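Q: How do we represent a protein-ligand complex in a form that can be generated token by token?
A: Start from the inputs.
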Amino acid sequence: MLPATLRKNQPTEYKVRIFVGFLFLVVVFLVGLAYVLYHQKLLQRAYFEKIKFNKAKREMKIFNIAGDIVIRGNLGTTIGYDKVHPCLPSDTRQDGSICFEWMERSRLYMQLYELDSEIQCYNLQWMGLSTGVDPTDCFDMSPASGYWYGGGQLAESTFQLGKANHDFAPFVTGKIETNRWGNILKRYFINSRGAAIVIDNSTPLYVSIRNNTVNNKKELCLKAKYDDFTFVNRITPLPQLNYSICTATNMTKLHSFMAEKKLWDGLRPEESNIIHSLLTEPLWEITAATKHDFFEEAVSNYTYDVIGLGFLKQGHVLLNEFWQEHIGDFTVDEERFPKFQETIEIMHRRGFRIVFTIQPFISTESKNFAEAVKKRLLVSERFSDRRIPALTRYKSLQSAGVLDMTNNNTVPWLVDKLKTLLSTFKFDAYYLDLGVAYNMPHYYQCEKPLINPDQYKTYFINSLQNTVNIFGVNSAIERPKTPTFVSLPMFESSWNGLRKVIPTVLTYGLVGYPFLIPGAVGGDYQSTEGIGDTSFNSSFIMKLPDKDLYIRWLQLATFLPVIHFTHSPNNYGDDSLLEMAKEMTLLRQQTVTPALKKYVGVALEYGMPLVRPLWMLDANDASCHAVTDEFSIGDDIIVAPILHAGVKERDVYLPAGVWKDGIDKSLRKGSRWIHDYRVEQDQIAYFIKMPDDTRF
Ligand SMILES: *[C@@H]1O[C@H](CO)[C@@H](O)[C@H](O)[C@H]1NC(C)=O
Ligand SMILES: *[C@@H]1O[C@H](CO)[C@@H](O)[C@H](O)[C@H]1NC(C)=O
Ligand SMILES: *[C@@H]1O[C@H](CO)[C@@H](O)[C@H](O)[C@H]1NC(C)=O
Ligand SMILES: *[C@@H]1O[C@H](CO)[C@@H](O)[C@H](O)[C@H]1NC(C)=O
Ligand SMILES: *[C@@H]1O[C@H](CO)[C@@H](O)[C@H](O)[C@H]1NC(C)=O
Ligand SMILES: *[C@@H]1O[C@H](CO)[C@@H](O)[C@H](O)[C@H]1NC(C)=O
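Then emit the structure tokens for the protein with 2-acetamido-2-deoxy-beta-D-glucopyranose bound:
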């Protein structure tokens, strides 16, 4: 038995012990918390006032001058190592940049350059320090990060990048069906919170848009990586990721700041006439199943039929590459075009302008092939001496060499041929059918190393630009000099194909190509199911498109910068279709062309697209961002076409303001949805902007 005193004291002592123990735990917890907070504070430091960067986790947030977060990123996701150090003095730069190094893995330079009191840009440059660390940075693209746009056409053909889903793929031109990115690209991404990313041309860039495996949030990831085709020529021994992030208080301000301006620089009066003629007159593309169906009388009859229509203007006639016997001859096939000089003269008198398609490819069957090999004018096979030409396939060409435009001797050789041809046949311009990056031979090697196969196009366009008229190109990574137009990719003749037109036009306009040639009314090629890959095969027989599809496509095309036909509306032998086509032509002449012409001036001065997404009218309206099946011409006309088979109504969203209904001429208030808006088969929904003080 214990003494009574002890027994009495025991509970108190017990309580004291518990209390002391508790105090101890609290103190330990507080000290620990203070330690953790202190270190977090130390790690997540602010740089250049507006960047918060946690070096250990490599999490970055950038704020705009109003103090809102505009972009969040997870940087260096492939480093797999947390110990970070300031750079050695020998590695630091004297330009105000901050430098960190993750030992022997990667080094990061960050630098602020302020461009404007309202625009701040930061350059980030990652250098891989060992093989296998391909520098990779990812940016939040979840709905909370705003809407993202830019880059190029995607397989999903969505204008909003957040809806896409892509693993890493080289950021070079291709076909969306097989290569993930389309025929026109720009290394430019922008979000609605007011942040834009521009990646330097020298970066061997891979891009992915996919869910983060940890938190399932959508991310845009940029990676620098060498490979054996797209980024084969190494500028630095290990890949470097070099890009800039620019921020502003709002997206409209930022985008107009980033857009390339003064596109009129060096534009001659006759060149601006070309822009105007393309906006007012159609483009007639003569297609043929095989080159044997493409001959002088067929071309002449085609233009005769156009005149017979009566209501459509003459415009440009685009001849495909089959004017030559073998592609790469650069001479007219005299068997199929015996009196072509006369025929061209007749077509000119009828009021047409004639455009010849050329390609950088020389068929192995062409008489020029042997000469080009002998003179070493062709792209050669890698790992060989320069005498062995590298071969590729393109459209109807089964085997062809590629002119090496980086070689000093090639350009004069080609220019000479093109000039001779022009002076003999007196046509008006050339159309460059350049193919995409993947049409280069796999093991290509040029005289001057290309940083990627797309750079070839820039060489090709630049070396011809000032010597012959270039009407258009079908693939680009840099805007060709005005007035050269850029073609949209070919679209399948299906409702699905029709639905891809608007997102593609909007994306290309946004990334800096205001002067676009949309595909042909009704689509450019037949469905590929069961036939194999025909989308690049111009020799594939294009049947008359489905009538309902043709009608809806024509209505949409009426509002696009250029109206492009392969099949004339006459081919259906349907009077009501012809009647609708007449009405659309009248609408284009009276309403659309004046608006397009008005905004050409804006495009030339400020680089703003003619065909715009609704958010360019009101970037603060979330509904405008959500709508991707409508567009506007400048700020003046909203267009909401029917894009589904057999449908005669749709929902329409109108941005802020007062709008005049194009169908029933009533006035409508903006910032609201019109549900189940009725559109008959011969109609298209469009709305014209009225002054804000218009009274109902
Ligand atoms: C990084 O990109 C910027 C902007 O394009 C460029 O001016 C700079 O020279 C590049 N730096 C390196 C080291 O390539
Ligand atoms: C990505 O995440 C979103 C939301 O967390 C989810 O709805 C979507 O299905 C995911 N996509 C994929 C491809 O996993
Ligand atoms: C964007 O910012 C600019 C200047 O900072 C301002 O003039 C403009 O009204 C703003 N636009 C929107 C849509 O908020
Ligand atoms: C061209 O038109 C003429 C006169 O209408 C006709 O005789 C001839 O068969 C047509 N040729 C072709 C290839 O359609
Ligand atoms: C090609 O021309 C450029 C400038 O005209 C010159 O610098 C270069 O040496 C030439 N290259 C060859 C291989 O002749
Ligand atoms: C192009 O289409 C034609 C006609 O269907 C076919 O004979 C030819 O093999 C195709 N060419 C290619 C390169 O797919």
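The chain has a mean pLDDT of 91. The pocket of 2-acetamido-2-deoxy-beta-D-glucopyranose (ligand 6) is lined by residues 396, 534, 537, 539-540 (CB under 6 Å).
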